[in-house]
Write a structure and sequence with these properties.
The chain is of the alpha/beta class. The chain is 35% helix and 11% strand. Helix 2 crosses helix 8 (254-263) and helix 3 (121-131) packs across helix 8 (254-263).
Amino acid sequence: DSGAPQGSSTYTTIVIVHGYGWHGGNFKKLLPLGQQFNTRVVVINRRDYPGSEEYTPSEKAHLVHLASNSPETTQGVVDFMRERAREVYDFLVDFVQRERIPQAVRNGNKGGLIISGWSLGSAYMTALLANVRLFPEGEVQLSKYMRRMVMYDASSVCFGYPFSMEWYQPLLDPSLTNEGRVERFTTWVTGYFPHGDVFSLGGAALMCNTVLADPTPTYTRITPAELAASTHAPPQLDDGSDRLMVLACITSGAYKVIREQALYPMEKAEGASDWWDVPVRHLWCDKSIWEMTWCAKMLTDEMAEAQSTGKPMREIALVRVEGANHFPHWDMPEKLLHLFLCDE
């Protein structure tokens, strides 16, 4: 938490949910910029990461069951992700109440909350959009504080879009050991990938394992101490909560179900808000790993299909971050904060 900017009553609070393996410690370059951007930056660690509550043995056992590739587990996985969305929602309500942050002024582009999920954290954002309609508002009407949601370099996997198993992903590489998979992913994900025009060429334009020599991967600019303060291996191992959660969501088809619940109108509970009027911005980095470029292409296609058929769909603004890999919060933090905050 960078803290509230000194002397400001109109600052915006940005809350970021991190991704797979790389946790909130990797966002440290954003914190000193709060005063400059009239912003309070808050990065929360998900469960099983440093400083947050661990999953209980019974919760871990349930995750193992959900990842068992059994078709009947789909609803169970959807319910598991609803619980994770509820945790984020409850955190936001508590933070608003405890810290007395300014309400949102959307037409003035100030105050309020911007909630963002980076990488795997985007799955928490779709789960939140899918389920907020089921959370009746209490004393704190969170909908009045929401400025926008930002899908920050979201993964096509987390959106439930189909992909080719021929597209390299170290987390799915059977030739790697448990520890080798973690080590390979840590370096691979920080590269700059020279993709072609995916919107016209499709999957043939993706560079899945070819990185640019310049710029060099972000990890070459991270010291061993900074790497240790930014990553956490246990959730990534075979019995780790993140790996089990991702496998459960992929094999059950839950990611697709949750995306559709998030993007299309659903019945809401009495006293709840579905955040249908909350702007959603999808930042995609065009030198990131293939999953993120593919997500932008597939989401663009889905939006176009909905428009052509007249199917009501949540409005999403796609913003291309040119020249950025998966880590602009490290390599270009000022530019990233600007894109979170600016009017389009």
